[in-house]
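Section 5.1 Outputs to date
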Amino acid sequence: MSAPTRVLIPESAPFSPEQRAWLSGFLAAAVVPDTQLPDGLLSLGAPSANAPTQALASNDDAPWHDPAMAIDDRMKLADGRPLAPRIMAAMAQQDCGQCGYNCADYANAISTQAEEKLNLCAPGGKETARMLKKLAEELGAEVAPAAGVEPQAAASVPLGELGRARDNPALGQFLARRRISGEGSEKSAWHIDFDISKSNVSYQVGDSFGVFVANDLGLVDQIIALLGMSHQTDISGKTLRDVLKNEKSLGVAPDALFELYSFISGGPLREKARALARGEDPDGDAAQLDVMAVVQKFANVRPHAEAFVDALEPLQPRLYSISSSPNATPGRVSLTVDAVRYQINKRRRLGVASTYLAERVAEGADVSFYIQAAHNFALPQDRNIPIIMIGPGTGIAPFRAFLLDRQATGATGKNWLFFGHQKQATDFFYQDELSDMQKSGHLTRLSLAWSRDGSEKFYVQDRMRQVGASVWQWISEGAHIYVCGDAKRMAKDVEVALVDIVAQHGVRTTDEAVAFVGQLKKTGRYQADVY
């Protein structure tokens, strides 16, 4: 009787059954010395005698799995671990799925050389890419093919399910946009609608929408002009203009671009480019350098078009929390998007995806998309369970979806939303909808916090503490708690407030309150969608 297949990729991972089976077999070869590989797979060789039995990364033993923790602190916690856990610690810890994996699976795929790309962690940005490059050097010699298997016969990972994997997107239609922030607001927030009915792709509330976007054509043309190149320059059968618009990131300048300029420039410019490639900041402007700023900085250096394009990162799809319910509006997907605009040195810069959705994509246009299944962010199966939702700003997105879904399915559990922003007059997103839900009794409680309306800033965590006794009462009744928004500040502050509430109203010591909140996380009663 043959040994059972060793399953190393959980069903919750963002893969099709075929992908999970393939990758489980691939990873098994890395941790089981004598595993017989299926035909066409590559052998990684047996682990060393001193290697641990389980060398893969896992959320079960990852004290660094905290998106609010700085990368240096995460790397210290992972010090001394096998390579895969250390690679995981370099990730942004958001499990956002933007890379096509969650953090642990991406780390395992890199460590087993099933994934070659080290620049897929968009939230981690350059600091993650640099750390991964350093760690990847430990992989040593290239993977050798298994005995009797020709290199060209190596298996490739199958495409994911249509519309449910970034490598196999579906087509939807951009329907409409409407502004939900008022005149005079410092923000420019939009409600965006898509029609996905013809794609036959389904989703659940809590999932995210991955959308493939394009760069601003004005920015593309400025870069081409500064480089002294032609729009029509051929790049592997495409025009330079099309490649820069649709395929390459023009945001934060990658180290490879600095390396290119160090090769083709001389004197002080060469040294400056080398320093930037090493992560140094010779002129004090490294944090502000996007691709166009680099072209301006090295204005008299003219790279070859193909070399310039090759030095740029790919333009990755962007993920947004879905703010609609398939039970309320079948075949439709809605997003809540802040159009990002800011200025550096008199030059206006734009958020690529947010301004694409808010301004550039035309109504009726086809848009490539995929659904990223949520990782531990979903409504309780029991519709009678009360829920507390904390989502300031565009963090309201999944909670609008939750409320619409519970309304459409007749859920009887109580619903409490904490929402906040800068000013009530201009930044009260979905005010009419929420008011109607309150009047009908569907939205049991609505607690608001406006940070710019008073003499002192007042946030959702402040409002939580103010009504802490009621929050504790809901928790005692079995409420599930959800948080959506900024990982570095808001989500961390909300968790601290929750610990304080448990300590004060649950009559516990701080250590006991921390343990209590930790238990809520383990049992799925405290879930976060942070970025």
